Every structure is written in structure tokens, then in C-alpha cells.
Amino acid sequence: MRKLLVAFLSLSFWLALPLTAAEAPANFAMHESRKPMPEIRFEDGEGNEKTLADFRGRTVLLNVWATWCVPCREEMPTLDRLQAELGGPEFEVLALSIDRAGPDAVREFYSEIGIENLALHIDPSVKAMFALGVVGLPTTILIDREGNELGRLVGPAEWDSPDMTEFMRSTINQD
Asked: Is residue 154 part of a domain?
């Protein structure tokens, strides 16, 4: 009887614990506490000014990249597939190009490699890169619904891998 009681209490303890987000991939540096994001400005594909505040209310995966960056070019299709799978009112991949050549260079690149699900966002001034503390390309920052940084990954990743997709899905659901 005692063993049954211990087993029941143990199970009750585990069932009472909150569900936790999936483990972050090894190269994704998650912060111990959320960090406020700087207010950055950039443009959409039509030349309209945007800020991160325009994306409040959804989890954002902000990817800072450039068309001339080889690892950026290689990972862009995986970000496009992640947006296709998870994008919507709860989540958005915000691919922010720092190309000084302007939006036409990004449009040409999107067309060349078949990007269909990512919106065009650009900061040819490169001010956002410095404000965000980006030290290398690509850099990807995970942002919560209130606009706080949860963590970041410097370098390329397979954004549509099963582990990464599950991590993103879990983060969206926990946020």
C-alpha cells in the first residue's frame, strides 16, 4: 500500500508541474530573463516605414541577413519553409536585409531562389544591425509577443529541421 501511495504522490507531483518549452537547439543562446529590444526602423517592400512595435502581439524570429552573405543565402530557404509552416497571427519570420543596394536586390534574390513566404524588409542604413548588437551575419533573434528578446543564434541554421520547428512551436505556445 505504501508503494502505491508513493507512486501516486510522485505522479501527482509530475502532473502538477507546468509544461515547459522544448529544449533550445545547442547553438541557440536563450537568455535567463527577457531583454528589452531597441526600437529599430526599417522599410517593407513598398517603402513603408516599420518598427518592431508593428509586430507586437506575435512571436517574431528576426533574421538579420544580406544577399551577399553566403551562409545567409544558404539558410534563407529554410526560413521560408519555417514561415510557411508556422507563420500566421501568432508567429512571423521577419527577414531583415541590410543590403545597401536596396529592395530590388532583395526582390531579385527572392525570385532567384524561390522565396515565397517571407515578406521583404530592408534597412540599407545598417543602423538596425548596430542597435541590435549584431556582430556577424546571419544573426537571428527570437522576440516574444511584448517585444522582448528571448535569445539569439549567430550563424546559419536549419530553421525547418524537426528539432528547430518543435522548439519554435513550443516557444509560440508558451509565449
From this structure: yes
**144 lies in a domain?**
yes
Which grid coordinates belong to 54?
508593428
CATH of the domain at 102: 3.40.30.10
Q: At what angle do helices 70-86 and 103-113 cross, to 10 degrees?
A: 70
pLDDT values of the chain reduced to their tens digit, one per residue, 175 residues: 544 333 333 333 333 333 345 788 888 999 999 999 999 999 999 999 999 999 999 999 999 999 999 999 999 999 999 999 999 999 999 999 999 999 999 999 999 999 999 999 999 999 999 999 999 999 999 999 999 999 999 999 999 999 999 999 999 999 8
Print the domain residue range for 114: 53-174
Q: Domain tally for the chain?
A: 1
Nearest C-alpha neighbor of 92 from the set 78, 79, 107 = 79
The reply to whether 101 falls in a domain is yes
H or E element: which one contains 43? strand 41-44
SS3 state at 53: helix
pTM of the model: 0.87
Please give the C-alpha separations between residue 157 and each of 49, 63, 71, 79, 115, in angstroms, as whole numbers: 28, 11, 9, 9, 17
Q: To the nearest 10°, the Cα dihedral for 123, 146, 31, 156?
A: -40
